[in-house]
Write a structure and sequence with these properties.
InterPro entries: DUF1203 (IPR009593). This protein has 2 domains: 70 residues, no CATH class; 70 residues, no CATH class. With 156 residues, the chain is mainly beta. The protein has 2 helices and 8 strands; from the N terminus they run E-H-E-E-E-E-E-H-E-E.
């Protein structure tokens, strides 16, 4: 099984960059990166020091329901190239020593028992294990320190 990492969709990024409302109805906040770990959810690369970026509330689910978490995400303030990550290769912006991985079913509900903090080097193996489990269709990767959503992994 190959793993494909999915970033924030370009339509959402363009909407936010154009001043559109985030998942809480607010315009994204504009900041300037200090170069210390500002991961763009669109291109899945870090925002460079001195580059402008946006902070917005985003719900990476197709509908609202009890499991549809909303949280802060960063993205380049200026258009960036959509992420192109080779299958099975971790996106460049996953630099922390560990992350929360959580499995979701086809209805975007958490599959209980799948969540946990996983060391960075163990992420691909854990994703394969989760995607091979009954009912798991996607794995969300979140910050283990701030619970911010980073990206989704699916079987390719």
């Amino acid at each position: 099984m190959q793993i494909r990492f999915e970033p924030m969709d370009m339509a959402t990024a363009e909407h936010l960059r154009g001043g559109g409302a985030d998942s809480y109805g607010n315009v994204a906040e504009r900041k300037v990166s200090d170069g210390a770990g500002v991961p763009c959810r669109c291109c899945m690369r870090l925002v460079g020091k001195g580059e402008p970026y946006l902070v917005a509330a985003w719900r990476p689910f197709s509908a609202t329901h009890a499991y549809a978490e909303t949280g802060p995400v960063f993205l380049h303030a200026e258009p960036c190239t959509a992420a192109t990550v080779e299958p099975d290769q971790l996106p460049a912006f996953l630099e922390s020593p560990d992350y929360i991985l959580r499995g979701y079913d086809a209805d975007e509900r958490i599959v209980y028992g799948t969540g946990g903090v996983i060391r960075r080097e163990a992420i691909p193996a854990r994703i394969r294990q989760l995607l091979g489990a009954p009912g798991v269709k996607a794995v969300h990767i979140r910050s283990s320190r701030n619970n911010c959503y980073h990206c989704k992994a699916v079987a390719d």
